[in-house]
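A further point concerns the way the authors explain their paired sequence and structure data. The central task, working out the structure tokens from the amino acid sequence alone, is never made concrete. I therefore recommend that a typical entry be quoted early in the introduction. An entry of this sort, consisting of the sequence and the corresponding backbone structure tokens, reads as follows:
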Amino acid sequence: MGAVKRHEEDAFQAATGRARSRCGWKDKVQERAMAVWAEEEGGGAEEEELIPGLPDDLAMECLARVPSRSHRRMRHVCRGWRGAVGSAEFRRRRRAAGAAEDVVFLVQVAPAGSDGKGSTPEFVLAAANLTTGEWRRVEGAAAAWGPVPLFAQCAAAGDGRHVAVTGGWDPVTLRPTTDVRVLDVPAGAWRRGCPMPDSRSFFGCAGRDGNVYVAGGHDESKNALRSALAYDVAADAWRALPDMSEERDEPQLVATPCGVLAASGYPTEAQGAFKKTAECYVAGDAWASEGDMVPGTAGACLASVRGKVWAVAAGKGGVREWDGAARAWRGVADGPPGMTACVEAVGVGDDGAAFVFVFGRAEGGKYAAWVMDAGGAAWRQVPVPPEFGGFVYSVAAARV
């Protein structure tokens, strides 16, 4: 993965059906939502009932089955709907009804402009809905704060609700930025987060238990870092973590139920020489060495799948799972068919319906995506629209 990323960086430097039948409310609700959406700035009128004529319990069951693409509009119908869509109960009912949707967020390079003059590339945040097959750009933050920074990192906070886009380079100055943008995924609403305490480039980023973790990378003098930080999304506050035992520029950060794993990366004096060592941070404790656990397979992407650390690479036996007790990797499956290099991998879903999403370079040089059930089913290629075929620098997954 590091080699593929360095190649891209060098080039850059050189250049709801069940609810409708049950409740019979489709037309009425859509007309109401569209009418109020047209008056978005007014915020809608407050009503005592979520849906007139229905008990709120049944109304919530109906609302929970509305596809996620309409959730932002639902928030503008009335205050009751706004509160419902943003509630933990709404998310619980969607899961219980089987209406939850798995969405992968990707910080990626947009297709080059038609002038072909090699201007600074545009980075975007894309959302791939693996349940519906829809791909779209996530809008909102760019209008208020400018475009997505180059090489920004994204991570799901692990609270079932928020995705944060952190750091990167300002596309105008090409200097590291401390920007933090937080997306409330069910609501489709952005807010500016507390800036990172320091500016760093090519750090590892992962999330769990409502926190986004940042570790390693390098400062503006190209010095590799051992320092690590944690951002509490609910409190909108950063705190310093103990330093890692080793400098790690371009590390892979993986959040598991047991802690946060920082793997590979390289020190200041050995630029690009990715190491095999890893270390793990458990809340309230220091980093503990995991030894040489990074697989020798070139370009392996690490991801948390069903609470376990997976390594995904191309070719036969390319997918493995780390057995912490045995201190060894066990084979899971071959790599995605037709993939020549893994770019990013992320675990999606929960223990009951978990799978892995992989974005990589395919035969012929183009980028493609695949998914595989964590139980070991065959790989399935995910159609990627041409406008979302750019290189990916970071991924995060959330169940909506």
